[in-house]
């Protein structure tokens, strides 16, 4: 096994990493801020590439749309995530993520469904009102994507993630991530299979400029194996620095709409890549 980056491999790596990290970041739910609730309600989660450790409030559902497009590789991925609290116990949260992907290395392949994720999170430490919060997550990665078109891994996968959120100061919050994805029977476009592992890590800082406006800086990295032959794999890496902003619109019926935009910039192994990230979330009570 060897570390390597070429244009085709970077393109596929970017899609897989972004599909996984977008689903992870989208799986954190809106809650009240770490300081006393302002009027109108503030924004606490809605991260883009980094997952925050706050589970969904009781009786509130969230619908999350995220889209990223890279200019050099021409990769893009769109994800829709819907998350629900488990009735009667806000420590448990379920969500699913549907990704639509396009691999720039295969311009004639078009876009289509990637590997669908089913997510479960447990609020182990703290909550949205705590200085420290930890919410480990476990996800199933279903092989719904087309392998020859570089939209899937070709086998059932398992992902674990450990998000940690810490309030440094009332107006500054930090979020740390570390996660591992394993696909025991991943497949390449030649039909060869091997066990692959992916590692993702990240750090973000959120500045609460205003209860309805947040400035963000996210650092997201990954190391991902891909199948090169029967029981043979190779590694590739990516690293993104992504400044962004999010803001909210609040309505009397409890609906909160949060748009956001960021500019992911590749550094190190990804230094020639940059793109645009768009975000839109709808959250509302369902009882």
Walk me through this protein's architecture.
There is one protein chain. The protein has 287 residues and is mostly beta strands. The protein has one domain (7-285): monomeric porin ompg (Porin), CATH 2.40.160. It is 7% helix and 52% strand. The protein contains one helix and 16 strands. The protein has one helix at residues 7-26; strands at 60-70, 76-85, 92-102, 112-113, 117-122, 132-134, 137-141, 157-169, 172-187, 193-210, 213-229, 232-247, 249-250, 256-262, 265-266, 275-285. The chain has a twelve-stranded antiparallel beta barrel. A hairpin with a 2-residue loop joins strand 10 and strand 11 (213-229). The longest helix is centred in the first third of the chain and has 20 residues, at 7-26. The radius of gyration is 18 Å and the shape is globular. The N and C termini lie far apart (53 Å).
Features:
mainly beta; Porin; disordered N terminus
- Count of individual domains: 1
Could you tell me the strand content as a percent range?
A: over 45%
Classification by helices and strands: mainly beta
What CATH architecture would you give?
Beta Barrel
Order of helices and strands: HEEEEEEEEEEEEEEEE
Poorly predicted runs: 1-8, 29-38
The CATH class name reads Mainly Beta
First-to-last CA distance: 53 Å
Tell me the CATH topology: Porin
Number of strands: 16
Query: How confident is the prediction overall: mean pLDDT?
Result: 86
Shape: globular
What is the assigned CATH homologous superfamily?
monomeric porin ompg
Mind describing the biggest β-sheet? 12 strands, antiparallel, barrel
Instruction: Kindly provide the radius of gyration, computed on alpha-carbon positions and rounded to a whole number of angstroms.
Output: 18 Å
Q: Strands of the biggest beta sheet: in what spatial order?
A: 1-2-3-5-7-8-9-10-11-12-14-16
Helical run tally? 1
**Estimated helix fraction:** under 10%
